[in-house]
Amino acid sequence: MRKSRPPASVEFTTSNMSAAISSLVSYGNDSDSENESESNTSSDNVDPMDPDAMAHLKPLPCGQSMSLTVLNSAPEVAVKESVETGTHLDPSLKEVTHNPTFETLFAPEFGPMNPYKTQQMAAPRNMLSGYAEPAHVNDFMFEQQRRTFSTFGYALDPSVDTHQVSSTGFIGAVDEAEKNKGLTVFESGHKKSEKRKKIKGGDAEEIDNFLGPWAKYADEKDLAKPSEEEKKELDEILAKRQKKGRNEEDAPAEEKTVLHVKDMYDYQGRSYLHAPQDVGTNLRSDNIPDKCYLPKKQIHVWSGHTKGVSAIRLFPSSGHLLLSSSMDCKIKLWEVYNERRCVRTFIGHSKAVRDICFNNSGTQFLSAAYDRYLKLWDSETGQCISRFTNRKVPYCVKFNPDEDKQSLFVAGMSDKKIVQWDSRTGEVVQEYDRHLGAVNTITFVDENRRFVSTSDDKSLRVWEWDIPVDFKYIAEPSMHSMPAVTLSPNGKWLACQSMDNQILIFGAQNRFRLNKKKIFKGHMVAGYACQVDFSPDMSYVVSGDADGKLNIWDWKTTKLYHRIKAHDKVCISALWHPHETSKVITCGWDGQIKLWD
Predict the structure, then answer these.
(1) Terminal Cα-to-Cα distance of the chain (whole angstroms)
(2) Along the 597 residues of the chain, how does pLDDT read in single tens digits?
(3) d(CA 193, CA 175)
(4) What residues does 503 pair with on adjacent strands?
(5) DSSP state, residue 181
(6) Are 504 and 481 in contact (CB under 8 A)?
(7) 104: buried, middle or exposed (CB in 10 Å: 19+, 13-18, 0-12)?
(8) Positive or negative torsion for Cα 450, 528, 542, 301
């Protein structure tokens, strides 16, 4: 329905009537020439005597009261409402504050198309991923098609009427669907293969010829021989294996030794194993220093190893010599006092040396290396006395400290066993096989009647000597692997370097309980077996760490007292000299051994 503007009303009175007439006349005069000519011709045609023709120019008759005249002077215009079907709604609106009609909601969108809209975006969507038509699928049917698709790679096309099964009715691997004739997983087309036929076994009455259920299959082959090609391949593989085996059997490297000092014996015929008596401390006494102090500065560097140093050991009781093993496959013996020279180098391993251990007198020592050999050396002459192997990598080695058992030693192996050898016969005399991971440390306790072992299985086991069953097993869920263990000088405590960056203290007498009051923290060792040590008077605990620092804790308060940057790489071991108040020896993976005082 078309709406027009409300009529503009004009009120005329007698007083201004004449003004209105004159304005109408002037309106006619102001028009253009064409209009003028038209008006002239029209006025010529009008009869001047016709009263109706001039009625609009005459004044209205005056009366007592004037009536209102309504004049509609607005032109007819096609208005907005007539064009638009309803109230316009922005399609991007998420909320409407009034109730729109159906026509308004579903009216077409106005305006030009967005030229940048992709075909995917322009497509009608009723959800984020597209347009979903409501459809009902039986749970079983859905599962059947899903499994068929995951197994064979095809499924029925849900948009096609399923009654007309054809090649177009599948999606996915259509070729596979045609081959399987559209079978689903629940309609397996494979028929059961016929049972293999057995040779008939004769009559049950004949005992000798009756085969019964033990009869062979008709197509059974008794002997399987490889073809000629297969035989060639097998022979090659076997030859390779034998070669490998030979290489490993040939592995024991040739043992050599180099003496670095001019004279092996002094004027009295004493070798370098004799403890010096002119160094200011009595190296032969069993008395420990009364009070120990913190080492402050580096006073010497022993350099000679070309790769990282893995372990250092002081000469038993006197500590005047230092034995070091390295990843450059060499073992070196150094002087701790006087000129601090390298005395002798022992060469005899083909791979990195992992651990070393002196016997009680220091005349011999054992070395364990990654070439799977344990070797017994003479400290004085440098001669290799004997070698031992069980084809596994030894991770740690220890002589039995009892004087009457100096020919026996134990080694923790990579195959989870602790193996006990007799160095006189070269034979394995005992195996302790209870650990669940490679054995990292062996420490003798309780007057050498027992020893403690730790392993990659994060446990600590205590063994009686020569009894291959552990009598104590310590493993907590919170425990970590402890690849370095040291017995305190008074024999009461075991310091264990734990892989959660702390040093744990276990009692070394009877109970082997964890001392929860003594836990030393503040260093970073995770992943490295940094050796711990005690000061001789039991007032300090020292350890290296992964950053190459030497850490010193107070034993009583467990406070970290001092930290020295000792090495560029990992500081793998720290030893406090048993006769000195403040001398500490450290070694690191930078190949250097340092003396601190």
Answers:
(1) 111
(2) 444 444 444 444 444 566 666 666 566 554 444 444 444 444 455 455 666 777 677 776 665 555 677 788 888 776 655 555 556 777 778 888 888 888 777 776 766 677 888 888 778 888 888 888 777 888 898 899 999 999 889 988 877 766 655 556 888 888 888 888 888 888 866 666 678 888 887 788 887 778 888 888 888 877 778 888 888 999 999 998 887 766 555 557 889 999 999 988 989 999 999 999 999 889 988 888 999 999 999 999 999 999 999 999 999 999 999 999 999 999 999 999 999 999 999 999 999 999 999 999 999 999 999 999 999 999 999 999 999 999 999 999 999 999 999 999 999 999 999 999 999 999 999 999 999 999 999 999 999 999 999 999 999 999 999 999 999 999 999 999 999 999 999 999 999 999 999 999 999 988 899 999 999 999 999 999 999 999 999 999 999 999 999 999 999 999 999 999 999 999 999 999 999 999 999 999 999 999 999
(3) 25
(4) 497, 520
(5) T
(6) no
(7) middle
(8) positive
Structure tokens at 499: 């892989």
pTM over 0.70? The answer is no
- Classify residue 213 by its DSSP letter: G
The amino acid that residue 393 corresponds to is: V
Three-class secondary structure assignment of 234-279? HHHHHHHHHHHHHHHHCCCCCCEEEECCCCCECCCCCECCCCCCCC
Q: Give the CA radius of gyration of the chain.
A: 53
Lookup result for tokens 């496959």: 329
Burial class from Cβ neighbours inside 10 Å (0-12, 13-18, 19+) for residue 564 reads buried
